[in-house]
Amino acid sequence: MLARERSRDPETTVNHDAIRRRFESFLKTQGLKMTSQRERIFERAFATHEHFSAETLYGWMREEGGPNVSRATVYRTLNLLEEGGFIGSFDTGRGETVFEHLLGHAHHDHLICVECGKIEEFREERIEALQEEVAERKGFELTSHSLRLMGVCGSCRRASSPADADAAAKA
Questions:
Q1: Options 3.40.50.1220, 3.40.1550.10, 2.30.42.10, 1.10.10.10; which CATH number does 3-154 get?
Q2: What span, in angstroms and rounded, lies between the C-alpha atoms of 18 and 16?
């Protein structure tokens, strides 16, 4: 399932205001306040259902109206959001780290195209069960896990099919 198509199932929905209050509380534990810049970053990060890079978020901040937000503040605030468990990040394998908000969304894994960067989310109960079985067999108690499958998506495979290569060679 694509990030922007995430389920709106009540089981996985968390009240936005409750998340905001939790973030404000987390900031206080760090001796920090919810500044207007942090608030803008928080609101924008939780307004999207797509995976986004720090640079993408910074671009959104520059395009949209509101208090000016520096690139450094975007990076620092994303670090705080991740440290507090509000968002997660992963490397796409293309030299880019992307973020997604975690609260209110069921656990899922990722398929990542190494050609175009497309990210598809999925959940497969057989994989989940196998991971738990392996952990148990090895004497581990799982506390969390992350699975990213890297490959080439169907669109990129079709774009680089042998027929395309033959046509390009004849041109």
A1: 1.10.10.10
A2: 5
